[in-house]
Design brief:
The complex is a heterotetramer, with two copies of chain A (158 residues) and two copies of chain B (168 residues).
Chain A lengths: L1 H23 L3 E7 L8 E7 L13 H18 L4 E5 L7 H14 L4 E5 L3 H5 L3 E6 L7 E6 L2 H4 L3
Chain B lengths: L1 E8 L8 E4 L4 E5 L6 H11 L29 E9 L14 E9 L4 E5 L2 E2 L2 H11 L4 H4 E2 L6 H4 L2 H11 L1
Antiparallel strand pairs in B: 1-2, 1-4, 4-5, 5-6, 6-7
Classes of the chains: A alpha+beta (158), B alpha+beta (168).
The complex binds adenosine-5'-triphosphate (2 copies) and magnesium ion (2 copies).
One adenosine-5'-triphosphate (ATP) sits at the interface of chains B and D.
């Protein structure tokens, strides 16, 4: 219903305004409702300004900035209405070291209320996990799984 | 509802049966290109009722059945089952009495399908309805597929609205 | 023709003048997210005659002029120049006598544009024709932009044909 | 002209058939001309089979396999008709360590006839370059460049 959407939109927007500067270490962002020229329900636009930069179209942002902005929105929605688990497939691929670190810190925080499953090639992200499964294909074309890490002490070896 | 176990057999590159158990916290899945990591995401979506082969990178639903390798023939069936622990949160009333809820889906090469909740045969609709109530099945923000995170920024305003509506 | 130097000033995040010199071999460009690496790709494409603001991630061509930061006001002009060494290969006949070929492009905030080849004013057409002959300007396979490599696999058959036609 | 396209297509296809197994350490791939249902010029399809796997739609390939297949085609076209320089922006992002290594080996080989400029976040790729420019934003919103490496001896320090 329209009422419930407006309510959820407000909650998500407030959360998004907090999560963005946390992942970007500054800057501001918010969601805006924009009228549908075709007369349908209003759509949602993202306005984002990384720290120190001037506000401009979200399209001019870099690949990594766009990914981190999208992650901020996803995490904001997730914080308003958590789901039992969250699957993130190589979301950290375009991020630099500092951003990967902040992304993983937030995942760690949110995993108290839900399970997070992250697929990654990134060593930093691997070190931030509680348990690690390796998927191998020793026999070509056949996937097999191996449990790689089950406790913090094993992290150093991974 | 907490995801505890994923069992996969004959689904895409998982020709042999494999079992994942998930503990609380953050679980990482790693491995070389093409080893089967994203196939696990497809398996989870499929078990929750995904009906579009395109959303599973296939052309027809049959594409999810292990089609063989140079050393192995194709299998005749794909099977995925998800086991959830009932932690009292977001559990649909009719399953409130169970300590665990297991959802299973099978597809045979002849096109037949089987669906089960806690070993009891059911329809696909029962599975999708189960998840609809829990917020687990909402693909839009709880499952971010490889390469798709950037789409949120380039999406049309109405598509972004749809993602937020999933949370409403 | 070998790319030897890139000079960029007032273009996107390069508010101050910066000079890149390229040696033979493999040159790497690194830095944190959003620091300006892909903006250099945009600058090179723009200097070679790119006329579509969309292909430079902008909405209007004016978007390539440094628009200011919290600590600096916007600049009134964007300028990029590319200097090539004439190594005898692929050089259009009318420039065969020059040891170096420098192409410069300027855009002013009032909309005025300036184009130069070896300090001589010319039209945009002269620049695009220069590159057309050399194979440098073919965007389709010699410049792979961020996030676009996967598109070749998901492209329509006619688009893939177009990439090969660039080499024909 | 149609003749020249057919000729170039043959050359590129032969090269593609060699480059793919080199980057994938095996497997086979080729290009196919497909009739245009609308009656226009035939289009180009990619058929690819990573080592040990069965031939299937290129859409079922993994993110990294798709990227490496595309890179094989781009490099094949490049080998047939080199351009003075080649710009690759974060092309290595979805690749695992082994594939990044083979990708960089080929870039190194091709850079004898042309200059290669690679933008990357990947440490392996950084070590494979001859010279390295760092772009920084000490003053927020303002890009500045720093020359990081100019010789192989500096690589160890990078
Ligand atoms: N029905 C099937 N039968 C056999 N193999 C299949 C089937 N469907 C997909 N595959 C194979 O699974 C592989 C893709 O696996 P997946 O996408 O999970 O890789 P990945 O581990 O995510 O790799 P990346 O790191 O590159 O993303 C492909 O090589 C594909 O050929
Ligand atoms: N006209 C302009 N004026 C000022 N800044 C601009 C302008 N156009 C783009 N920018 C800024 O340039 C930045 C993007 O730079 P770029 O895409 O080169 O980053 P990058 O180094 O490639 O990062 P990544 O590693 O994430 O891909 C954005 O933050 C954007 O706001
Ligand atoms: Mg994958
Ligand atoms: Mg970039």
């Amino acid at each position: 219903s329209k009422e419930r959407f407006k309510e959820t939109f407000q909650l998500v927007n407030d959360r998004f305004r907090e999560v963005f500067p946390r992942l970007f270490r500054g800057g501001t962002a918010e969601l805006q409702l924009v009228e549908d020229p075709a007369g349908g329900e209003p759509g949602v636009e993202i306005v984002a300004q990384p720290p120190g930069k001037k506000l401009a179209s979200v399209n001019l942002l870099s690949g990594g900035e766009k990914a981190l902005t999208a992650v901020s929105l996803i995490f904001a929605i997730f914080l308003i209405k958590p789901t039992p688990f969250c699957l993130l497939d190589e979301v950290d691929a375009p991020l630099d070291e500092a951003n990967v670190g902040r992304y993983n810190e937030m995942v760690r925080e949110m995993c108290r209320s839900s399970q997070f499953i992250v697929i990654t090639h990134n060593k930093q992200t691997m070190e931030a996990t509680d348990s690690l499964y390796g998927v191998t294909m020793e026999e070509p074309g056949i996937s097999k799984i191996v449990s790689v890490k089950l406790s913090p002490s094993a992290t150093a070896a991974a | 509802m907490k995801l505890r176990r994923l069992e996969i057999s004959g689904f895409k590159s998982f020709a042999d049966r494999a079992v994942f158990s998930f503990d609380d916290g953050v679980t990482g899945i790693v491995g070389p290109n093409g080893c089967g990591k994203s196939n696990l995401v497809d398996a989870i979506r499929w078990a929750m009722g995904e009906q579009s082969a395109k959303h599973l990178r296939g052309r027809a639903m049959e594409d999810v059945i292990f089609s063989g390798s140079e050393s192995r023939p194709a299998t005749g069936m794909a099977e995925v089952s998800l086991t959830f622990q009932n932690d009292g949160r977001l559990v649909p009333p009719q399953y409130a009495g169970f300590a665990e809820i297991t959802v299973a889906r099978r597809l045979f090469r002849n096109g037949d399908s089987e669906y089960e909740i806690n070993k009891t045969a059911c329809r696909l609709l029962d599975i999708t309805e189960l998840f609809l109530g829990t917020g687990v099945g909402t693909r839009a923000y709880s499952i971010i597929e490889q390469g798709r995170i950037g789409l949120i920024v380039s999406a049309k305003p109405e598509d972004r609205r749809a993602i937020i509506e999933e949370a409403a």
